[in-house]
């Protein structure tokens, strides 16, 4: 069968012919229909993620949508043999039934970004009605979906930051601030950005950060200055597109009620991740959520692997 194979750490996959996997209990055979290429999927596949195994060669991909031998349509997580192949083996406990009105391609595309915001808001931030949510990096697929997720889960107000004034304005948040309106390489630009941010965030109680890096430093310093110890703020790091490290002032933490934590594959229990995915698909179907996607075939894996993250690349396999 056809599969996208990665031969060594950090390498992109190439199309290859491999033997079909043989199922044994408790694994089940899934005929793969679609698998999306998220940042975490690519990083884990290439051995560049904190949760990666470094056994090569291997089939790329970690999740997707497919059918069982009885024809039942399912989403599967944590594929045992890689999802970017015509067939894969999956632990039976990692299968989730899909709503009829959610297509294969959309289910594959929405799973990872939907999971990122739902898990962060429910299991890390413990969102409740009336919370005010700031989303840093709201122009990507995950960030845009996080806006809808926050409102659905009870947020009273959502504020968004990121690059691109027009893109931010289009996500239907209550307030927005474009970082590229300021020269953040300059001290005066950083101060101006923090001042403008401070005017918008006086009542923020939750931050979802998809960027981290220097933007996290500015946001945390601004919140500490603006809100200080007035109320608790749960700051959740989800992604690190702007940098894996951020310079956090000890004074900012001592002078505020900011609680910094992460949300990911090890900070949220697997059982909760499973429940998260079930609810993401339910909410997506109920609210008719969609994200922009670009569909590729398995033969186009090299092109798809290097394609932008938005629209979300989805590999149509059969």
TrEMBL record:
Q: Where does the record place the Enoyl reductase (ER) domain?
A: 10-317
Annotated coiled-coil positions are none
Q: Which InterPro entries match?
A: ER (IPR020843), GroES-like_sf (IPR011032), NAD(P)-bd_dom_sf (IPR036291), Zn-ADH-like_protein (IPR051397)
Signal peptide range equals none
Q: Which GO terms describe its molecular function?
A: oxidoreductase activity
Protein name (record): Zinc-binding alcohol dehydrogenase family protein
Originating species: Weissella muntiaci
Print the organism lineage: Bacteria, Bacillati, Bacillota, Bacilli, Lactobacillales
């Amino acid at each position: 069968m056809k599969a996208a194979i990665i031969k060594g750490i950090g390498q992109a996959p190439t199309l290859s012919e491999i033997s079909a996997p043989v199922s044994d209990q408790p694994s089940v055979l899934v005929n793969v229909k679609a698998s999306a290429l998220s940042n975490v999927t690519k990083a884990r596949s290439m051995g560049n993620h904190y949760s990666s195994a470094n056994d090569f060669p291997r089939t790329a991909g970690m999740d997707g949508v497919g059918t069982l031998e009885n024809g039942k349509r399912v989403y599967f997580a944590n594929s045992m043999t890689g999802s970017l192949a015509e067939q894969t083996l999956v632990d039976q406990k990692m299968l989730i039934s899909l709503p009829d009105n959610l297509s294969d391609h959309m289910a594959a595309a929405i799973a990872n970004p939907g999971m990122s915001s739902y898990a962060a808001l429910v299991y890390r931030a413990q969102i409740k009605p009336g919370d005010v949510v700031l989303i840093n990096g709201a122009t990507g697929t995950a960030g845009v979906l996080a806006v809808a997720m926050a409102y659905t889960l009870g947020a009273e107000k959502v504020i968004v930051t990121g690059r691109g004034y027009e893109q931010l304005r289009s996500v239907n948040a209550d307030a927005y601030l474009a970082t590229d309106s300021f020269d953040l390489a300059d001290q005066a630009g950083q101060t101006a950005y923090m001042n403008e941010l401070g005017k918008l965030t006086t009542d923020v109680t939750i931050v979802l950060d998809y960027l981290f890096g220097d933007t996290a430093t500015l946001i945390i310093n601004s919140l500490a200055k603006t809100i200080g110890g007035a109320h608790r703020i749960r700051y959740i790091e989800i992604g690190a597109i702007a940098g894996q490290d951020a310079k956090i002032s000890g004074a900012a933490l001592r002078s505020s009620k900011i609680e910094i934590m992460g949300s990911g594959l090890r900070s949220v229990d697997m059982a909760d991740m499973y429940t998260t995915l079930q609810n993401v698909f339910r909410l997506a179907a109920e609210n008719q959520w969609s994200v922009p996607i670009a569909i590729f075939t398995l033969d186009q894996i090299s092109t798809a692997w290097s394609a932008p993250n938005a629209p979300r690349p989805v590999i149509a396999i059969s």
